[in-house]
Amino acid sequence: MNPIPELTAFLKQLRLSGILDSLDLRNRQAIEGKLAYTEFLSILIGDEVARRDQKKVAMRLRRANFRGEKTIEAFDFDRLPNLNRSLIQDLATGRYLSEKVAILIAGPCGTGKSHLAQALGHCAVRQGHDVVFTMQTQLVGSLHAARAIGSFERRFQQLARVPLLVIDDFGLKPLRPPHDEDFHDLVAERYERASTIVTSNLDYDEWGDAFPANRMLGAATLDRLRHGAYRVVLDGESYRAPKPSPDSTRAPARSPAAAKAR
Description:
GO terms for molecular function: ATP binding. Residues 238-262 are annotated as: Disordered. This is Transposition helper protein. There is one protein chain. By secondary structure, the protein is an alpha/beta fold. It has helices at 4-13, 20-33, 37-64, 85-92, 95-99, 113-126, 136-148, 152-161, 179-190, 215-226, 256-261, and strands spanning 103-106, 131-135, 164-168, 195-200, 230-233. It has 2 domains: 4-64, no CATH class; 77-233, 3-Layer(aba) Sandwich (Rossmann fold), CATH 3.40.50.300. The radius of gyration is 26 Å and the shape is elongated.
């Protein structure tokens, strides 16, 4: 008697149908290895746990809205010799998440700020945390749109409660009312409750320029972000530098007059 059809129905009823993907393989391994029933069952359950973990990671990555596969393994540390690699590796462990502090990343365009921020976000996802990645303009824009349709509080709380919020390109565009107030309220709500990663092209002492309409509000916002925060400065050449023209290596052409003179 073949027990597979009945077993399949039971597994589906228990929402364990993923076991079917490896059942045949594990059954052959159990027979060939003469495994005890408990060993066979442990391997099958282990497969199901791993499958569910992978599914959770994939779901968190989709919700995070990262822009491509920007991982810590793919980050080019050699291009930034002055970067404190030990600090980055320590941050990748996610210790700052339990500390509920921010990571502030500053540096010129093209030095890898967005990559590093998303890479740390990827690490957090793999460690079981929910993450949201957004640009400053998208962040305040989404809150503005939510206010227009009466769902501001819901959207605000979603952003306030996520364990890790990554805000890219802070200060690229100035924050004006009511966006500056929304940004401040979000930072204040997350203060000492959840971690935030912020990247900016501005030097740290220029971050206040992002609040041209209300410097006092900006000071209060940045005071909360900076408290206990880890600061990372990326200083190097832009990886977006244009490639040299194919003709740039050729010897310069002689003028007709010079050629005639020869």
